[in-house]
């Protein structure tokens, strides 16, 4: 056999390492986030996911069953990450309105920015399915309740109205997405959300304006 024939002879391919179900699920989620980031949520289909992940379609369908199932999994992961970050920050914060408002504003904005521009697209896609919209509302209600519990000690004898909490959440989403898109800075988003939270608590106290001792702390969210 000549040396040329030896060089042209194909080599045996390396055997593909089989991932555990947990590791495969993690890989598929990572690739799904990448697709949403690089190509947009509209391109995020189970077929496209199988193509980029290098697995067969049945593997992807086994993990998510449907495209709404995939979107729900992405949203749950985002929410879990946000919840962990916020719970840890609340536990480490001082028992003051300024600190609690700073934690809520900072953790919300930071979590959206950490995930990147893809999360607004994923959340927008959730509105296209009644089932996904229900999942989103459940997580939103849990977030609002967490905020209510964290802020209630500073309302005196008053209570925080549900309308105010939902308005706060709307502001949090809008400001975070604007920061993720580069329309405003992260500091601007956090400071504006801080102001919104403090004003909401002040209205719950019946004052209608910021308590005087918070006027000098409105920049805490820039940390």
UniProtKB/TrEMBL annotation:
Protein name in UniProt: AcrR family transcriptional regulator
Gene3D superfamilies according to UniProt: Tetracycline Repressor, domain 2 (1.10.357.10)
Key words of the record: DNA-binding
Biased composition (Polar residues): 1-11
Domain HTH tetR-type span(s) in chain numbering: 22-82
DNA-binding stretch(es), residue numbering of this chain: 45-64
Top-level taxon of the source organism: Bacteria
SUPFAM superfamilies named among the record's database cross-references: Homeodomain-like (SSF46689)
GO MF annotation, one: DNA-binding transcription factor activity
Region described as Disordered: 1-21
């Amino acid at each position: 056999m000549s040396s040329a024939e030896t060089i042209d002879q194909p080599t045996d391919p390396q055997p593909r390492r089989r991932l555990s179900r947990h590791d495969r699920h993690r890989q598929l989620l990572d690739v799904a986030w990448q697709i949403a980031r690089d190509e947009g949520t509209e391109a995020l289909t189970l077929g496209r996911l199988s193509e980029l992940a290098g697995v067969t379609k049945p593997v992807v369908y086994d993990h998510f069953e449907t495209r709404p199932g995939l979107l729900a999994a992405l949203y749950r992961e985002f929410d879990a990450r946000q919840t962990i970050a916020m719970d840890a920050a609340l536990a480490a914060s001082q028992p003051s309105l300024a600190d609690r408002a700073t934690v809520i504003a900072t953790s919300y904005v930071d979590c959206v920015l950490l995930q990147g521009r893809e999360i607004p697209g994923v959340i927008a896609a959730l509105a296209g399915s009644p089932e996904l919209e229900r999942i989103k509302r459940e997580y939103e209600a849990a977030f609002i309740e967490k905020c209510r519990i964290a802020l209630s000690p500073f309302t005196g004898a008053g209570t925080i109205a549900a309308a105010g909490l939902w308005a706060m959440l709307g502001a949090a989403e809008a400001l975070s997405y604007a920061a993720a898109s580069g329309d405003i800075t992260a500091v601007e988003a956090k400071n504006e959300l801080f102001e919104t939270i403090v004003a909401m608590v002040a209205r719950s106290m019946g004052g209608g304006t910021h308590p005087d001792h918070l006027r000098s702390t409105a920049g805490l969210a820039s940390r």
